[in-house]
């Protein structure tokens, strides 16, 4: 049987694929299989689409063969990400044919950023698709499915005028479905920055912040359901702005201070940030809030001022390094993570060396790096001087070797340290759990399942390929 997930690579927070915990099926209700590509925002959206469908009687399944509805929540960030959707749709078409021949219904929906960017094109290229629904309209999914069942091929990619967050039928159940001890909470969506390589401003629309009261409600519901760590999400999360109870203009720093007051909410994170929106209040929050974890994903993309300018990042390498200094002064134990693009049009060897130099100066704990991928409709696509793929490949290899070395050095540097560990889920061995370090590492430790959700003190004893090992400190 076709395994849709088998060919897909592992999770990255910047446009990889992320497995989502789903509820298990019950009885003979309609079943939906949701496959999530792309960033954490899509993970959150998949949860919410699951909620919207649950209120229509759907249960989620992890087996695509069982599903009456297969929903691909897609990513358009790089060409590869978009291509994956079409190959998945090819496999689904065959499955649907077989199913229909046996007299069983199977519907196929495409959601997310490819849906938004390619709309009609998807219906043309993939005739088996019943519904195409963009990220701003997924609250209309139940309605769209009804129309599709009546024979229509539905496209819903307008930017909806109503607030999708308010219109989610399952909104009040969001907390129940999260079930884990960590959860995402979208506070901001869209982007007005228009970096010249990036599709996000086109697929997600312009920057919108959710109101404070909505965010606080959702955070409290999550905590009531047992969540201990909340990661605030936004394409430009530090551009979040709202109005405080006193009518004052609030930024992300103020929001974090307020969230840190919620009893039981032990840990806060946020992602992804733009260097231009790291204001004083936010940096101060890193200094003063114990709940705010010392880990920051702050993409710079490149180390050459010429390339940064061509990318429309609107800061220099020196601006970025100064910012890092200030953040490290405020919170000396902070671990930094970043995103990099190699082979942006016009990037010379010397420009690339600037990127390596910047990486050497910063010393990242973690990072994601990509070959520049030409995206139709973005200004970068029209630039001459596209870089040869072989050159991109060679630069990527060198950059990744350096970043990996730094990542290992960071992990090695943790050995011997005593840290707080949030126990998250069962480990590979019985009586072992996996927890999260303040720096977002997975840590294996001997502990009982009943302790999931506890924060315990451990000493890091060693490193593995993708995780750390620790022993409990008896108190
Ligand atoms: N909002 C975030 C990033 C969102 S996209 C920010 O501004 O930092 C996640 C990452 O994908 C980006 O940081 C960038 O490194 C990468 N990316 C985006 N467009 C790309 C493209 N056309 N080719 C290669 N990588 C790209
Ligand atoms: Fe894309 Fe730039 Fe916006 Fe990030 S800030 S989402 S990279 S346009
Ligand atoms: Fe991809 Fe859309 Fe996220 S393009 S990275 S899923 S915002």
Ligand list: S-adenosyl-L-homocysteine, iron/sulfur cluster, FE3-S4 cluster
Estimate the strand proportion: 15-25%
Tally the beta strands: 21
What topology, given as strand order, has the largest sheet?
2-1-3-4-5-6
Query: Into which percent range does the helicity of residues fall?
Result: 25-40%
What composes the largest sheet?
6 strands, parallel
Kindly, what is the distance between the CA atoms of the first and last residues, rounded to a whole number of angstroms?
52 Å
Shape: globular
Parts with pLDDT < 50 across at least 5 consecutive residues? 1-13, 18-25
Q: How many H/I helices?
A: 13
By secondary-structure content and strand pairing, the structural class works out as: alpha/beta
Radius of gyration over C-alpha positions, nearest whole angstrom: 22 Å
Describe the structure.
The longest helix has 26 residues. α8 runs parallel beside α9 and α12 runs parallel beside α13. The protein starts with 30 loop residues before the first strand and ends with a strand. Helices cover 34% and strands 21% of the residues. The chain has a six-stranded parallel β-sheet with strand order 2-1-3-4-5-6, sandwiched between helices. It has a five-stranded mixed β-barrel with strand order 17-18-19-21-20. A three-stranded parallel β-sheet has the order 7-10-13, with helices on both faces. It has 13 helices and 21 strands. It is α/β, with parallel strands linked by helices. The chain is globular, with a radius of gyration of 22 Å. Bound molecules: S-adenosyl-L-homocysteine (SAH), iron/sulfur cluster (SF4) and FE3-S4 cluster. The site of S-adenosyl-L-homocysteine has 19 residues, from β15.
């Amino acid at each position: 049987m076709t395994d849709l997930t088998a060919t897909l690579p592992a999770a990255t927070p910047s446009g990889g694929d992320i497995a989502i915990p789903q509820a298990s099926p019950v009885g003979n209700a309609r079943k939906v299989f949701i496959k999530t590509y792309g960033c954490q925002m899509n993970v959150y959206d998949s949860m919410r689409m699951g909620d919207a469908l649950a209120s229509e009687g759907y249960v989620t399944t992890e087996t695509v063969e069982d599903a009456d509805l297969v929903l691909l929540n897609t990513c358009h960030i790089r060409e590869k990400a978009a291509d994956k959707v079409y190959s998945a749709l090819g496999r689904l078409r065959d499955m649907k044919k077989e199913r229909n021949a046996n007299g069983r219904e199977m519907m196929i929906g495409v959601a997310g950023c490819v849906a938004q960017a390619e709309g009609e094109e998807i219906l043309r290229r993939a005739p088996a698709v019943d519904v195409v629904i963009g990220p701003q309209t997924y609250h209309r999914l139940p309605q769209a499915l009804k129309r599709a069942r009546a024979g229509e091929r539905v496209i819903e990619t307008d930017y909806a005028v109503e607030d999708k967050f308010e219109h989610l039928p399952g909104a009040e159940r969001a907390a129940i479905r999260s079930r884990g001890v960590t959860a995402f909470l979208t506070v901001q969506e869209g982007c007005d920055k228009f970096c010249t390589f990036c599709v996000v401003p086109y697929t997600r629309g312009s920057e919108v912040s959710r109101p404070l009261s909505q965010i606080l409600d959702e955070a409290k519901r999550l905590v009531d359901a047992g969540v201990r760590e909340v990661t605030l999400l936004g394409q430009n999360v530090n551009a979040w702005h709202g109005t405080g109870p006193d009518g004052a203009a609030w930024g992300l720093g103020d929001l974090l201070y307020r969230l840190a007051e919620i009893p039981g909410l032990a840990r806060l994170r946020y992602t992804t940030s733009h260097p231009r929106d790291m204001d004083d209040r936010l940096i101060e929050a890193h200094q003063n809030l114990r709940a705010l974890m010392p880990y920051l994903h702050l993409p710079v993309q490149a180390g050459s001022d010429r390339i940064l300018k061509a990318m429309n990042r609107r800061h220099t390498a020196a601006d970025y390094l100064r910012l890092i200094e200030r953040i490290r002064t405020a919170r000396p134990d902070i671990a930094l993570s970043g995103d990099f693009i190699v082979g942006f049009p016009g990037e010379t060897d010397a420009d690339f060396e600037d990127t390596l130099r910047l990486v050497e100066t910063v010393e990242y704990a973690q990072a994601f790096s990509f070959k520049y991928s030409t995206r139709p409709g973005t200004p970068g696509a029209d630039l001459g001087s596209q870089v040869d793929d072989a050159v991109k490949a060679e630069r990527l290899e060198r950059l990744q070797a350096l970043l990996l070395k730094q990542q290992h050095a960071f992990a090695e540097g943790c050995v011997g340290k005593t840290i707080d560990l949030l126990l998250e889920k069962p480990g590979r061995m019985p009586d072992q759990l996996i927890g999260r370090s303040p720096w977002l590492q997975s840590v294996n430790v001997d502990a009982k399942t009943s302790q999931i959700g506890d924060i315990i003190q451990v000493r890091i004893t060693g490193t593995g390929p993708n995780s750390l090992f620790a022993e409990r400190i008896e108190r």
